[in-house]
Design brief:
This protein is an all-alpha fold. The protein has one domain: Non-ribosomal Peptide Synthetase Peptidyl Carrier Protein, Chain A (Orthogonal Bundle), CATH 1.10.1200. It has 5 helices and 2 strands, in the order H-H-H-E-E-H-H. The chain has a two-stranded antiparallel ribbon with strand order 1-2. The longest helix is centred in the last third of the chain and has 37 residues. It starts with a helix and ends with a helix.
Length: 140
Amino acid sequence: MNIKKLKPAWVDEFKAFALKGNVMDMAVGVIIGGAFGKIVTSLVGDIIMPLVSVLTGGTKDLAGLAWKISDAEDAAVVKYGAFCQTILDFLIISLSIFFAIKLLCSLRAKQKEEESAPAPSTPEDVLLLREIRDALKRGE
């Protein structure tokens, strides 16, 4: 029994796709992004929101802010505080990514500039000394 016949044709294609550098870089980015999201959520919930509570007079957690549509027990609740806290998380993450990308772009531009910079020219006195040295070696 031939094992190659049992394996669908798309398996090799998927393997080639999954092992490409861009896909692996993206996977690492997603994993780091997930961890970074947790850090930002902690930053907002544990550091920024207590400071905001001082300004708002004691509302320590925006996520708890809600508007109840009616007084009925099964009334719909609009949780605008959780939405505001999520927007704050998003703003911090997007600003962090913006500054990280800006830093990377400036580093890459600096690296390209250094690579494309012409070699410094040799001063004329050094060239003359080299000519004299070469002439002495030749015995002139």
